[in-house]
Amino acid sequence: MIGQRTADSGQRALAAILLSAVCCLLSGQEAPPPKDSDLVAAAKKAKAGRVAIPRKPITNADVKKAKGKLIELPGKASAETARPAVEQWTTEEKHQQARKATAAADKVQADATKKVADLEKELAAIEQSYYEENDPAYRDDVIRKKFDEKKQELEAARAAVPNP
Fold first, then answer.
1. C-alpha dihedral over 132, 137, 139, 144, to 10 degrees?
2. Does the N-terminal or the C-terminal CB of the chain have fewer CB atoms within 10 Å?
3. First-residue to last-residue Cα distance in the chain
């Protein structure tokens, strides 16, 4: 059976490789430690020169023995007063209120626009009656005064119409 490989020969080769790796590790050949960079060396030197601060919890007795003055500052506003008020209206209620306000504004605008249109019609009728009247005294005394009054009303009504 020369030239044929068996499963046993594969296991022997693997065992030989593992044995040689273990021997190399146990032989004591350690890699030299890596050299520190200048920055690391400077940091280690600075750390060695520092004095350790003793860590001790502060107790009530320590505070009473202290020679300094204790100043109590007025307390800050409580968390409840600092928070903004929670809105009481839901989104739907807000929407309904906005719709009502818009409807009211539309109604005011429609009423003002209707009043302006009515005054324009009345002014046109008064102007027409002015030209139809044959009596100059009546035309200048009565109709002209009505015309001026309606014209002032119309200007006031136009000024009162809200812009959309």
1. 170
2. N
3. 106
pLDDT score at 65: 84
Q: Would you state the pLDDT for residue 2? A: 54
Q: What is the mean pLDDT of each run of 10 residues along the chain (164 residues)?
A: 59 74 62 76 86 84 80 68 66 91 92 92 91 88 91 90 74
3-state secondary structure 20-73: HHHHHHHCCCCCCCCCCCHHHHHHHHHHHHCCCCCCCCCCHHHHHHCCCCCCCC
CA 128 to each of CA 20, 38, 93, 144: distance values in angstroms, whole numbers, following the listed order: 126, 107, 52, 11
